[in-house]
Design goal:
It is a single chain. The chain has two domains: about 10-140, NAD(P)-binding Rossmann-like Domain (Rossmann fold, 3-Layer(aba) Sandwich), CATH 3.40.50; about 155-230, no CATH class. The chain has about 230 residues and is α/β, with parallel strands linked by helices. It has a seven-stranded mixed beta sheet, with helices on both faces. The protein is built from ten helices and seven strands. About 45% of the residues lie in helices and about 15% in strands. It is elongated. The protein has helices at about 15-25, 45-50, 60-75, 110, 145-155, 155-170, 175-190, 200-205, 205-215, 220-230; strands at about 10, 35, 55-60, 80, 95, 115-120, 135. Helix 9 packs antiparallel against helix 10.
Length: about 230
């Protein structure tokens, strides 16, 4: 397959990622023919559709990938792609999109900017024909670390904001002010990286750190704060 070829692809799954992939493919200059199947459909229909395609995209949960492959795809002469950042299975290719996908679709121009971590092939178009996105080749032994870093950088801030946001509102801080704060600290990091950090950890202000920790008594944030202080205020 060349970068200019298109394929008939079966997309398996009906969740959030599958919805984004449907739209994403439709925005290509020359879209692939995309069939779909999910658990609400008959198994006979799955086999009928498998007979029509060259490539299968598995947009299902990580825990179901290998068992689904073993049960339905292992005896087929097909290229099978999954999108998990964590799972490695040498019978399948993986292309993990470095993106957080919301329930609603993204703007069209965002999709072409999404970067992939690719394991199992050397060119993205081999498994995603027509997609011109950037990609990095990810060695199988590096996937666990890669995905852990994605979780820490992508999920941990949101978990913290989910705890701090309602508490700030309870202290009569306007929602718009919190939004501006979060937006600006994110922009600061993008622009200045390690030089963006401000506050008591940077100043080595141990008195303020102790007072902050004491103020968080009876909150799950206390242990988080103390852990960060131990690791990052030295």
């Amino acid at each position: 397959m060349t970068a200019f070829d298109r394929a008939t692809i079966l997309l398996i799954g009906s969740g959030r990622l599958a919805q984004h992939l449907h739209f994403w493919n439709s925005q290509l200059q020359s879209p692939n023919v995309l069939l779909d199947w999910d658990r609400s459909q008959d198994l006979k229909l799955l086999n009928d559709k498998l007979a029509q395609v060259q490539i299968v995209w598995l947009a299902i949960s990580d825990s179901a990938l290998v068992s689904f492959y073993d049960k339905h795809l292992s005896q087929k002469n097909l290229t099978v792609l999954h999108f998990s950042g964590a799972v490695y299975e040498d019978r399948m290719v993986s292309a993990h999109p470095l993106m957080s996908f919301p329930k609603s679709l993204l703007k069209s121009e965002v999709y072409s900017q999404i970067h992939f971590a690719l394991t199992g092939v050397t060119k993205l178009y081999e498994v995603m024909p027509g997609f011109t996105n950037g990609f990095s080749l990810m060695a199988a032994q590096d996937k666990a670390l890669y995905h852990a870093l994605c979780v820490v950088s992508g999920n941990f801030p949101q978990l913290l904001w989910s705890e701090t946001f309602p508490k700030l509102l309870q202290l009569n801080i306007p929602e718009a002010a919190v939004h501006l704060y979060i937006r600006q600290i994110t922009e600061n990091f993008i622009q200045f990286k390690n030089n963006a950090l401000t506050g008591p950890f940077v100043r080595k202000d141990l008195k303020t750190i102790e007072e902050n920790s004491a103020a968080l008594t009876n909150s799950k944030l206390k242990k988080v704060y103390q852990s960060f202080a131990e690791e990052f205020s030295q």
